[in-house]
Amino acid sequence: MIRKLFVLLAGMLVTVAVYAAGAQLRANHPDSYTVRRGDTLWAISAKFLAKPWLWPEIWQANPQVRNPHLIYPGDVLNLSFINGTRLRLEPGVHPEGEAVPAIPLSQLKMFLKDMRVMDSNTVSSAPYVVGLEEARLRGTVGQNIYVRGLQGEPGQRWAIVRPTHVFRGFDQNDAGKADLVGHELDSNAAMVNAPWDEETRNDGHYGFGGDLGLEVSVIGTAETLRMGDPSTLLLLDATMEIRSGDRIMPVDDTPYDPYYYPHPPKSVPGNAKVVAFADAMDAAGPHQVVVLSIGARDGVDNGQTFSISEPGETIHDDVASNSWNRGVGKTVTLPDEYVAHVMVFRTFDRVSYGLVMDGLRPVHVGGRLTMPQ
Predict the structure, then answer these.
(1) Going from the N-terminus, what domains does the chain have, and what CATH number goes with each?
(2) Rounded to two decimals, what is the model's pTM?
(3) All residues at 6 or more sequence positions from 216 whose CB lies less than 8 Å from its CB, including other chains
(4) pLDDT tens for residues 174-228?
């Protein structure tokens, strides 16, 4: 028994040593840091760790930090070297303070609560609003709406959704596969203004490949008053006017993750790329949301951290061309360039939402995902 315990403790020490070696302190790290309101764990770690996404392993290796997320404004992080790299936390007094989050959750609520990415066929076959009380063109809170295809019982609550965006990958062989579904939905309920920006093909459609999923936005909730064909529902709340063609989905009461533990993936699929970004004109930067072309079926889970690399440029090799005319002849492709880290905060079947955590250059659509550096 004693021998087994010794082996276990030795293994734990080796593990801590590996973490310490992987998450080395920056050369210019401060001697201490006082946590401030508005900080995030990633931003704090970036001040003194060469690889800030490794902060959970380092902090969990210290007995003073039972939960690396329960760090509060006023706490002091002291940096010291004891048989390798180690951090020490001196808790302050925080009877009512809020713990510092890993990432700025307040900026992500729309993507955590109001957005879903689903199979296009699932959305197109879902129950839909066919009419409104007194034959009105738009429905507002307190009015009845009439729904076809609904299965359930009186008193049941439902989410009202509207298509937002069709995400597509980069497989040229599948180009256009989702166009029919997208237009069929669009003919009944025009898509709301999507936050996403993608490059377009020559025919004006977004993306270059097959359908990765249809994003819908939750725009209201309703309660069943009477079942039938159509069923009668009472509109309880709405962020915009409800109209014919809006889809009805079960309410998703699953709480989103309050904590995120950055960690590397076991592997990175070859098709893993950035397919869209939010609230940006041409490129994304730190604390902006991007869509990745991999999801739960690829083994992606919340907290997985990737590096984003941009493909190197192809330039002319004037020396190898042995020509006096510059810009002609042989070419060479430069190596890929690291641009940023991205951490997944919500996953769907074939796509994921990620938050750009830090970076050296802007993130563009088509950026390739690699193991974190």
Answers:
(1) 2-90 (3.10.350), 118-250 (no CATH), 274-370 (2.40.10)
(2) 0.75
(3) 115, 116, 117, 118, 123, 161, 162, 163, 164, 247, 249
(4) 433 333 333 334 333 345 555 565 544 434 444 455 778 888 999 999 999 999 9
